[in-house]
Amino acid sequence: MQTLMPLSEEVGKLLVARNDKVAVAESAAGGLINAALLAVAGASGWCIGGAVLYTPRSRFALKDMHPEMFAGMTGSTEVYARFMARMVRERFDAQWCLCETGTAGPTGSRYGYAAGHACFAVSGPVERVLTIETGSNDRVANMYAFAEAGLRLLVETLKA
């Protein structure tokens, strides 16, 4: 967690300067992004929270989310990450949302992606997407790599 803290602190400073709030939707990172943000003192002023949306059932638990909204989309893609970032931002009434969707491992996904594959999207006044491939099947290492990549993308986007 210590490697994520400097990024989380920077996210907090950037959001406070804007008087904005962020929500997070994550999957394969398993809550590490939310945990890193909430570990920063004062996070309640700029982090609304988020959800680990690991299964289709969890996605449909969000307000007004229905299977037909996902027609033609699969997880672990930039299209899906952008869609979920927009939906969670709206449902959490946040100015920003970071979404992560990926395959931590040790095996690949049902969509054909290798372990270590993840896609990210930031939705807000500026939108960005990113795909990474760690090349590793180490589940825990990938979870941390995903959290770090997502936080880095959020910092870069907030600075844009």
Essential attributes:
globular, 160 residues, 39% helix, Maf protein, 5 helices, 20% strand, alpha/beta, 5-stranded mixed sheet
Structure summarized in a few sentences:
The chain has 160 residues and is of the alpha/beta class. It has helices at 5-18, 32-38, 56-60, 78-92, 139-159; strands at 22-26, 47-52, 96-103, 117-123, 128-133. The chain has a single domain (5-159), classed as Alpha-Beta Complex (Maf protein), CATH 3.90.950.20.
Structure explained in plain terms:
The chain has 160 residues and is of the alpha/beta class. It has a single domain (5-159), classed as Maf protein. The protein is 39% helix and 20% strand. It has five helices and five strands; from the N terminus they run H-E-H-E-H-H-E-E-E-H. It has helices at residues 5-18, 32-38, 56-60, 78-92, 139-159, and strands spanning 22-26, 47-52, 96-103, 117-123, 128-133.
Major sheet summary line: 5 strands, mixed
Overall 3D form: globular
Estimate percent helicity: 25-40%
Q: Multimeric state of these chains?
A: single chain
CATH fold node name: Maf protein
- Count of DSSP E strands? 5
User: Structural class of the helix and strand makeup?
Assistant: alpha/beta
- Provide a count of the helices: 5
Number of domains: 1
Our Rg estimate from Cα atoms comes to 14 Å
CATH architectural grouping: Alpha-Beta Complex
- Give the CATH superfamily: CinA-like
* Name of the CATH first level: Alpha Beta
Task: Flag low-confidence runs.
Answer: none
Strand content: 15-25%
Distance between the termini: 26 Å
Question: What pattern of helices and strands is seen along the backbone?
Answer: HEHEHHEEEH
Mean pLDDT: 93
